[in-house]
């Protein structure tokens, strides 16, 4: 159960 | 955004500036792997598809566009610029980079973040970025003469990955307390690939010697 990615990261 | 993340992004940006500086001022791309640069174009385009679907910040959008634009520009110089392309180390840049693409894609299908097109391609870009430096490292091993700008470029690129790991550790304790296997493991693999290079780079810097990697 991978956490959703933080969309602020490049 | 924390200081490690910003330092990582700035190091990444600086590595690209150094590479473009080398290409534009010396009109030479000797020692630079076109294979690695082509993989980066694929990495950035597949990762930043969310440019069209999600707005995060001006910084985020600008950086994504810069990474896509500069990677395309570098490949353009190496393939099409009439002077620069003649300096390409074609005979030594022999890593079969296209062979890296199918396994990364299959891995992204097997272990995606979510089963949607953008998240599968995002996972693919993470896996591909982890190994995209391999042709460049192989080329450095084969180069008898690594110039300072090329050495600095690869060092800054490795430093960016190392700083991202510090950023994740910091974020884990200060923000989320959540585990993120896909980028963490890929990021650790990616940084580990630089270990050998770092060792010889720092050694040559300390001893004021020219950088050479043992084959």
From TrEMBL, chain B:
Signal peptide: none annotated. It comes from Eucalyptus grandis. This is ER lumen protein-retaining receptor. One of its GO terms (cellular component) is cis-Golgi network. GO terms for biological process: protein retention in ER lumen; protein transport; vesicle-mediated transport. Pfam families: ER_lumen_recept. PANTHER family: ER LUMEN PROTEIN RETAINING RECEPTOR. One of its GO terms (molecular function) is ER retention sequence binding. It is found in: Endoplasmic reticulum membrane. Keywords: Endoplasmic reticulum, ER-Golgi transport, Membrane, Protein transport, Receptor, Transmembrane, Transmembrane helix, Transport.
